[in-house]
Prior knowledge:
InterPro entries: KFase/CYL, KFase_sf. The protein has 339 residues and is of the alpha+beta class. 20% of the residues lie in helices and 20% in strands.
Amino acid sequence: MQRRWKVRPAKSNWGEFGDDDQIGRLNLITPDVRRMAALEIKEGLTFCLSIPLDLPGGNLLVSNRLPPMRTIAKKAGRPLVNFPFCCDNPDWNDIGCDDAVTLYTQYSTQWDALSHIGCEFDADDDGEAEIVYYNGYRGGEHILGPDAEKGPGALRLGIENMAETCVQGRGVMVDLFARFGAEQKLVGYEDLMRVLEEDKITVESGDMLCIHTGWTRAVVEQKDNLDTQLLHGSHSVLNGADGKLLDWIDKSGIAALIADNFAVEGFQTSSGDGSRRFPALPLHRRCIVELGMNLGELWHLSPLNDWLKANKRSRFMLTAPPLRMPGSFGSPVTPVATV
Ligand code: UVW
């Protein structure tokens, strides 16, 4: 065990789950929390909270993230489709198909690993900022680029750490779409508190909070006619510049924050205080870097949200492990809600 920092960001929890901790707020999903989550299974109905992984389609949403590319595996130089699978033995007549997929891990319904976002911060107190991630893990030492001997990838904070926890607990749905509709609305602390109060939603330690904005449903419905207005200028986003909102996320005890929009929060275009350099995604910084809280994005929450509304509920059992892919910065996920 080794502490990697002398100074930690003012509102961070570095060290509080252990100096070598790599799962952050998932530590709050205890056996008791899982038992309480299981009590939310009353009807035995399940919901798939992923959109098809080839959506949103194209690369209008983020230019550097491409749709899945499928190739067919080969055997004996032939494509392995409708293939005599066990051709090594002429007496066997099984037929098989094998493929391979190149997946951009953050293209569609996904989890951000704790290695997805870092920041510049003077953690060793020598007057110069270095690249740090949750719990003081370092860019160049633990998070490696393609030129590093052991790179590329996350030697620490990779998505496999999240997978190993199984990510099963209680989900709590908050319906912003019902309040704010399809217009782009920057939702801050006061707005969120009003929705929680009016919808009588209680959030407890270890809960995974799901923010329903309706964005993903619109993307699925309009998938053949997507434009930048829908992708970048519609539906609610959290206001990461609202410090009270970030403090509430911390104090709420939630283990993970999930949304059915692109990035949970909107991008910031100025610092607000004249600083030349500032975080474009301050909620990402507080949650991922400072609190060790994974963010789920592009989830398909609308069908579950509709059912919960119709049944006057907001809670459900959520099972959402990412791929156990060593060293990855994120992962596609097929979350399952059980009600
Ligand atoms: C970005 O990389 C913009 O963030 P995320 O994938 O977490 O939305």
